[in-house]
């Protein structure tokens, strides 16, 4: 359960981060992003889903994505974790790529869920606003915990059956990400 603002740094919250890449060496971008995330102060990598190859959800012509989800424990506040995610994206070349809404990108990190927290600011919304309408997010998320719920109690797996099967979400690979992230 999320704590009051003054208590954030005394508590390790369980948070789910979506990762995606559809430019260059997609798998390497994911590997490097997971390693960077695991190396940050205040963040502990707990587990990761398999990688899935997915079709883009964009009118912009682009290649398929590799998507996955990481479950972390962190003692950061939401905007601090957002900054960590943005720093990792920049480190891996995201800022060098011209910004196109829903366009191709070397790496993308999105905060999906933060326990039972509902959070909204101009920079960040938790739960992620498109969480329940994207198969490429729900499938890896539910692989980690098939009984995950939205704040308020709705089972996430109930949303999956409502989504079109037209969007490609195919198993790509599975690794022991925690060991890889902590390897010398």
Could you explain how this protein is built, in words?
This protein has 184 residues and is an alpha+beta fold. It has helices at 26-39, 78-91, 135-144, 157-160, 177-181, and strands at residues 13-21, 43-48, 51-54, 65-74, 108-114, 119-120, 125-126, 169-173. The protein has a single domain (7-173), classed as Alpha-Beta Plaits (2-Layer Sandwich). Strands 1, 2, 3, 4, 5 and 8 form a 6-stranded antiparallel β-sheet that branches. A two-stranded antiparallel ribbon has the order 6-7. The radius of gyration is 16 Å and the shape is globular. The termini are far apart. The model is unreliable at 1-6 (pLDDT under 50).
